Amino acid sequence: MHTPDVEGIPVLRPQLPRTERLLPYLQRIDAARVYTNWGPLACEFEGRLARALSLPEGGVVSASSGTSALVGAILAVAGRASEERPLALIPAFTFVATATAAQECGYIPYLADVDAESWMLNPDDLLRRAALDQVGLVVPVAPFGRPVPQAAWRDFHDRTGIPVVIDGAASFEGLLELPERYLGPIAVALSFHATKSFATGEGGCVALNDIDLGERVTQALNFGIRVGRESQMAHINGKLSEYHAAVGLAELDCWAEKHASLCAVAGAYRERLAGTELAPRLLVAPDISSSYVLMFCRSAVEAERIQNSLRQSKVEFRLWYGRGLHRHGYFSALPHETLEVTDSIAPRVLGLPLAVDLSPAAIGYVAEALLHGSGA
Ligand SMILES: *Cc1c(COP(=O)(O)O)cnc(C)c1O
After folding, report:
1. Domains of the chain by range and CATH?
2. 65 pocket-lining for ligand 1 (C-beta < 6 Å)
3. How far is the CA of 20 from the centre of ligand 1 (A)?
4. In this predicted model, what pLDDT tens digit does every residue of 188-223 receive, in sequence order?
5. What's the pTM?
6. N or C end of the chain, less CB within 10 A?
7. Distance from the CA of 69 to the center of ligand 1, in angstroms?
8. pLDDT tens digits for range 65-88
9. 170 pocket-lining for ligand 1 (C-beta < 6 Å)
């Protein structure tokens, strides 16, 4: 029986490429003396990502974070909010960054409820609602890295004319798997934050097959400058430094191995809970990103009991999306529709411990605490 350290089992211990993997790339930076502004490493990183995602050259634009990738994509696709259409429709069930990015571009986030099955915004539902006349932007989110299909959103855009930018966040693995379904003319922003499975520490990118739009994203992330020194559009400084690109290139070198380790941990969780009544409610890769292991509790009461049991066993857990954006003090005054699904789901999705090197013994220990809490 595994007994954890006094500190317990942390919910996430990320691991990025070690120094020796970075060194050849860092030496290239020393030699080139280019440190940012799409230097040779950032360009190589974009090119390798584009090939991995079956996108044309120019189909991946690097960014300093997932949030800046979102801002760059929004400014390129929709521009800043207008007086006539001040609202950005976003799901209440997401990480804070989705709302932050919309606000940074001048929009008032309007929180919509998610679909009970997919945990995403449902474009057909939105089309049926009358209140789209003040909406200048929609940002569907890939919940826990479940990628957002492009087709239905292209249709939504064709019918309404409303710009769409996808917050793809942790959906890198899903995009790699089926790029033809999840990539296309709609810009998808990805996060390479340390907590994501594919990570550069801080970083992100925008992925799309529209090269002209990609160039506008680049411009939006670079002070609105395309040629010379003239700023020509709404913008931020959202550039990826060469140092972060170095981490990204080393992460790509090791990605197959890292992904296999994360999937092995997912498999070990699945195996350990197989045959128990918790098995059908364990969510792991490939259903979601391999950077999450989730227990979807039956009820708020069961979630409470499981959380108490985990606390007692010093197993750390996290509600990755909190209780919905509307439950954050800062966002509590935002306009929103009834959020029944979000209110029902959010408190029941528990993020469980994960690390590339999480031992089978530790996973067994977490499983016992879960089973004890659920009364199984
Ligand atoms: C991680 C994440 C982001 C972006 O986060 P950054 O820390 O800025 O890279 C955005 N949306 C969601 C849903 C996320 O999980």
Report:
1. 19-253 (3.40.640.10), 255-374 (3.90.1150.10)
2. yes
3. 28
4. 999 999 999 999 999 999 999 999 999 999 999 999
5. 0.97
6. N
7. 10
8. 999 999 999 999 999 999 999 999
9. yes
